Amino acid sequence: MSRNPLVLNEVVGDVLDPFVKSATMRVVYDKEITNGTRLSQLAVADEPRVEIGGHDVRTLYTFVMVDADAPSPSTPSQREYLHWLVTDIPEGRDARYGNEIVSYEGPRAPTGIHRVVFALFRQEVQQTVYAPGWRPNFNTRDFASYYNLGDPVAAIYFNCQREQGCGGRRF
Question: PANTHER family, from UniProt (predicted)?
Fold first, then answer.
């Protein structure tokens, strides 16, 4: 049985296919995110710093941020809700050096506790990526397939709830 928190908390399955981590990604709001970190909506109102490890600035990455539980964990009918999409991030840099395709929108969990997922893909080539016409019902797998990104090379998630949260996913 896997002890991988992405598997245990069904991020792999609901959002991503199984993958082998081969890159380093750090996500920092006021503190660095680790799998399962609990944050309030207020704490994630502003975009985080997303850093890609490495030194080869010729290697580019695409970064996707989605809510796996929109609008509620018990009925995620808008899964996945796209919060942010950045392409062409050079290795060893942060997302500010990339091409923002969909601007950051802080997670708003109306009910329950939501898994917010950051997925990183290594790009084979620099290419034009078009913003989807919607944020709800985005599909990370379909997006990666359409743009030939392959499997993710890194992923992390945090749990988000409103300030006076109640109900939803059990820990």
Answer: PHOSPHATIDYLETHANOLAMINE-BINDING PROTEIN (PTHR11362), PROTEIN FLOWERING LOCUS T (PTHR11362:SF98)
